[in-house]
Design brief:
Elements (H helix, E strand, L loop, with lengths): L3 H29 L7 E5 L2 E6 L10 E5 L11 H9 L3 E5 L8 H16 L7 E5 L1 H12 L6 E5 L13 H8 L3 H6 L1 H4 L6 H5 L4 E6 L11 H10 L4 E6 L8 H4 L2 H12 L4
Parallel strand pairs: 3-4, 3-5, 5-6, 6-7, 7-8
Antiparallel strand pairs: 1-2, 2-4
C-alpha cells in the first residue's frame, strides 16, 4: 500500500471533523440568536404593516406573508410556527386592511404592501399563508399575481367566494362595492377557485391543513375544490385532512409538522 494513504485518510478525517464542528457551532449560534419580541411597523397608503425579521435571513430574504392581519400578526402567537420560521431564516409579515374579502381593489392595496416589502430588500416571491378568511385574501392575491407567489399555505382557509363570504353579505359587499345581484352575477369573475390557471402555469406549490368536520369553512366547498381542480391541472398540492376536527385552535392546525417542513423547504429551496 502506498505509504501516503494513511496520511491522506487522517487529513480527510480532520477536515470532516472540522466541518462538522463548524456546522454545529453555526447551528448553536443561530439557535442562540434572540427572536424579535415585537414587530417592526411601518405604513403603506395609510394602513399598518408588521414585520418580524428572522435573525439570520435566508439568502434571498424569504418571508411568510400572513393573513388576516388585524391590528397584528396573530400567527406569531403560535410558538411552533413563529420559532420554526424565524430560526429557519424566514421572516413573517402582514398588512392590516381590515375585513376585506378579496376584491380587486383590496387585492391591489395588498400589492402596495408587497412592493414596499420588495423595495426594503425582502424576496420578490413570498410564501402566502392564509388562515380562515385570510385564505381568501391570500388566494385572491395569488391568482392575480402568480408569478410573484412562491407558495400558498392554508390553515382551514376560505377559498370559495361563493361559500363563507356570502354568509355575511354586507361585509363582502363593502369590499366589492357593488350590489349583491351584480356580485352573484359576476361570481366566476371574482372567485379565486375559478382562476387557478396562473398558479398552475407558474408551478406554485400548495399545502393546506383542514378538518373534515369544519362547519364554518366546509372542507368540500373550499380546500376540497382547490385540491380537485389543482390536481386535475397537474399542480403540486398536499392536503392534510384532520379527521373529526372543525374550525378550532388546536395543535392539529397550529403545530403541524408537515406545514412547518413545507414552509422551510420553500424558504431555502431544499428539504429541511
Amino acid at each position: 500500500m502506498n505509504s501516503a494513504w494513511p496520511h491522506r485518510i487522517i487529513h480527510l478525517m480532520k477536515t470532516v471533523i472540522t466541518f462538522l464542528a463548524l456546522s454545529l457551532l453555526a447551528t448553536v449560534t443561530c439557535a442562540d440568536e434572540p427572536l424579535p419580541k415585537t414587530a417592526e411597523t411601518f405604513e403603506v397608503n395609510g394602513h399598518k404593516a408588521f414585520l418580524y425579521p428572522a435573525p439570520k435571513p435566508g439568502k434571498d430574504k424569504p418571508w411568510v406573508w400572513y393573513a388576516p392581519t388585524l391590528k397584528g400578526v396573530s400567527i406569531v402567537q403560535r410558538k411552533a410556527y413563529f420559532e420554526s420560521f424565524l430560526r429557519g431564516g424566514i421572516s413573517i409579515a402582514g398588512f392590516d386592511l381590515g375585513e376585506v374579502r378579496g376584491s380587486p381593489a383590496s387585492t391591489e392595496q395588498f400589492t402596495l404592501f408587497y412592493e414596499e416589502m420588495v423595495k426594503r430588500g425582502w424576496s420578490s416571491k413570498p410564501i402566502l399563508l392564509g388562515q380562515s378568511r385570510g385564505g381568501l385574501m391570500m388566494l385572491a392575491w395569488a391568482v392575480r399575481h402568480p408569478e410573484k407567489t412562491r407558495a400558498f399555505v392554508g390553515i382551514y382557509p376560505v377559498c370559495n367566494l361563493a361559500n363563507w363570504p356570502m354568509k355575511n353579505v354586507p361585509v363582502t359587499l363593502a369590499d366589492y362595492k357593488i350590489s349583491e345581484a351584480e356580485l352573484r352575477a359576476r361570481m366566476s369573475e371574482f372567485n379565486p377557485i375559478d382562476h387557478l390557471k396562473g398558479l398552475l402555469e407558474n408551478k406554485v406549490p400548495i399545502f393546506v391543513v383542514h378538518g373534515d368536520a369544519d362547519a364554518t369553512v366546509p372542507y368540500a366547498q373550499n380546500t376540497g375544490l382547490v385540491k380537485e381542480r389543482y390536481e386535475a391541472g397537474g399542480g403540486a398540492i398536499t392536503v392534510k385532512v384532520i379527521p373529526g376536527e372543525g374550525h378550532a385552535v388546536s395543535p392539529s392546525f397550529f403545530e403541524c409538522r408537515e406545514l412547518i417542513d413545507f414552509v422551510l423547504k420553500q424558504g431555502d429551496g431544499k428539504s429541511p
